[in-house]
Design goal:
binds magnesium ion; binds iron/sulfur cluster; 24% strand; Rossmann fold; 4-stranded antiparallel sheet; ATP-binding; AAA+_ATPase; transport; alpha/beta; 12 helices
Length: 319
């Protein structure tokens, strides 16, 4: 496939105070292909949202580069190119409520981008476009004059999606878009995102905190732990043949639908808490919690190993 996004050796530090720095993302590389959904998974504090924000250019990288359609997104560019880039990459959020201005009607929320980017010629066209977008995301044209608080969580997520779609993006970063919703609503939003992807050839980065959430939407999945990308594989491969001990533990935490299988399955319980990213463990960052660690893991950081084509893991067991 054609690469739409390239994340190359990206590191992001934050200074906590004069002496301490937090490494939110540490030397992470991956590509996202045009038209795919790339799932990025990990517990809170693993750096997955930081990657989303780096892609949206809300942060600058400390080291490494990010390319979108072959261009370095953080490099200086003309105003026009800058504007186009803002339009082409859109984000939807976990809590659409906090990202929707409570004093604006749905119509104004959606139209804001249309106006900034001059995507409609006049009022009539603007109105038609808004109604069309509302319909596409499963809302009614009558909803246009209502305010965000008048909607349910799922409906608000639909407004957020309509706002993103208004700008005709190529790439959407969805940062935990379903985590705050009920299970039945989660499925509806995932289905909506899938439909939109098919109709519009969209590419997604889908960020989530557990593997169950990205399973049905992702073509490929990356697993992060404490700022590191520890495993990357095609979705089916990852769920059936997980390699990294952390991925195995995450997968064993997902309940199986069949209660008989669920009872007999071996659960991997990780000991301890996630260590602080301010002072991460030596060697492999997962070693204090790893059930199969070796002596080498404590002193030496593992390197990326491509075990099979497209299946990459960061663990001494596979080197
Ligand atoms: Fe466990 Fe060692 Fe692999 Fe880290 S490198 S996950 S500690 S076996
Ligand atoms: Mg987050």
């Amino acid at each position: 496939g054609e690469k739409l996004v390239e994340v190359k050796n990206v590191t992001k530090h934050f200074m906590i105070n004069k002496k301490q720095r937090l490494t939110a993302v540490s030397n992470v590389s991956f590509d996202i292909y045009k038209g795919e959904t790339f799932g990025l998974v990990g517990e809170s504090g693993c750096g997955k949202s930081t990657i989303g924000r780096l892609l949206m250019r809300l942060y600058e990288t400390t080291a490494g580069e990010i390319f979108f359609q072959g261009e370095n997104i953080h490099a200086r560019k003309s105003k026009e190119k800058e504007k186009l880039l803002y339009r082409k990459m859109q984000m939807i959020f976990q809590d659409p409520y906090s990202s929707l201005n409570p004093r604006m009607t749905v119509s104004d929320i959606i139209a804001e981008g249309l106006d900034i980017h001059q995507l409609v010629k006049n009022k009539k066209e603007r109105q038609e476009k808004i109604d069309q977008l509302l319909e596409i995301v499963g809302l009614k044209p009558e909803d246009r004059n209502r305010y965000p608080h008048e909607f349910s969580g799922g409906q608000r997520q639909r407004i957020g999606i309509a706002r993103a779609l208004a700008l005709e993006p190529d790439f959407i970063i969805a940062d935990e878009p379903i985590s705050a919703l009920d299970a039945s609503i989660q499925a509806q939003i995932v289905n909506l995102l899938k439909e939109l992807q098919e109709q519009r050839g969209l590419t997604y980065l889908f960020i989530a905190h557990d593997l169950a959430m990205v399973k049905y939407i992702s073509d490929r999945v990356g697993v992060m732990y404490l700022g590191k990308l520890v495993e990357l594989a095609e979705s089916e491969e990852l769920y059936e043949q997980p390699l990294h001990p952390y991925t195995k533990a995450l997968l064993s935490a997902i309940p199986l639908p069949d209660p008989r299988l669920e009872r007999t399955r071996e659960k991997i319980i990780l000991k301890g808490e996630i260590p602080s990213p301010i002072d991460p463990p030596t060697g492999c960052r997962f070693h204090p919690r790893c059930p199969v660690k070796k002596e080498i893991c404590v002193r030496l950081e593992p390197e990326w190993t491509e075990v099979k084509e497209g299946h990459i893991v960061l663990c001494h067991l596979y080197q």
